[in-house]
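Form 7-S
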Amino acid sequence: MASPQGRSSVGRSGRIPVSPAATEEEREQALRDYKVTIEYKHLKSHAPGGVYLVPSLGDLRTFYGVIFVRRGPFTNGIFKFQLQLPPTYNDVNQHPQITFTSAVYNPHVDPLTGKLDIKTAYPKWDPSKHYLVTVLTFTKKIFYAKNFDDAKANVEAKNLAKSDPAAYRKKVDECVGESQRKAFANMEGSTAKFTEEILGHRVLRDLLKANVREPSQVSKQAVLSMIEKASKV
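Output:
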């Protein structure tokens, strides 16, 4: 992961290097930086299913993500988002911010800005209890929720879900369809990008199916060889 200046900020030990002459403020910031890297590492085995998060190339506190919705009203939706952490994240009430770059018709999402209303769900952000996995779990939850009584971001959607479920479902279906049509529209600078399938991708997939019986036993060299063959098509 990289620092805001784009340089590597984590040493071989996994800790943020700090100059012996650093001020107390710089040391506190370095500790915050270190905690962010630990939280992200934790996600590798604890991220909610269907949710993927990739760090940006130039900012330790910017991430790009996507959620694939597998059931419920938003089934088959592909929703991209940006996760931004404030400079003093890991202090009390320093909430992360999720902004959807895909259009999302949901009572918890501001229809104008795409921002997820995190503060209503977590009025007090407590770094001893709340982590990156917390906000990602909530992000996933809004697509499966059946009750929107506490939602404030999109009052129109909230009222429609209650007064006319069929009309709300139609809006949701339109939202899902748009997310699929724009799946290959990538935000500038995003590290969570989709590209349309080309012949080389199909060839590689066929080679993997034909030659890989047990993924845990295939060598790195064998995979690289198949990739090289596919790239020459």
